[in-house]
Fold:
Amino acid sequence: MADTVDAPAKVHEHGAESASADNAELASKLVNRFAIWSGVAGLIPLPVVDVVAVGGLQLQMLRRISQLYGVPFSENRGKALIASLGGALIPASSGIGAASALKFVPILGTLASGFVMPVLSAGATYAIGKAFIEHFASGGTLLDLNPPDYREFVRTQKEMWDSRSRNSAHSAETPAEHAENAGAAAGS
Structure:
């Protein structure tokens, strides 16, 4: 008889774990998609407009992750938290501003920033998204997020994004380039 009483609780627990895993998977896919879109926004050739576009995408990403986890969303609080988490990425966030400002320099500045801005924008968006997933999955809300607590986590996620970017660039090599690079690495 005790087994029949416990059975619904076990089913409910399994259902909650499954829903949590589904949320984490959906949120992760969402972060990946918004990171790519942020990289594309980084290609906007107008200074400042690109930064505003990336910020808007990050805010929309936060809104969507909040919905997935059933966390009430406040646009003003979201903007403040994204800015605070961006502060944890000071080199990247200042790099985004510098890359955007480079677009003021005709031709060469636009070209240089076209290589840097998308990578920085995508990496920062990815790291911020993963930090919010981690926070919401642990039961947190927008009101109790303490950005300094996530500083190391954000840096780790940024490094993961950078290594993914390097790996995808490496996998985009032609077989001849791969053989050449492998030979050079073996000769070192």
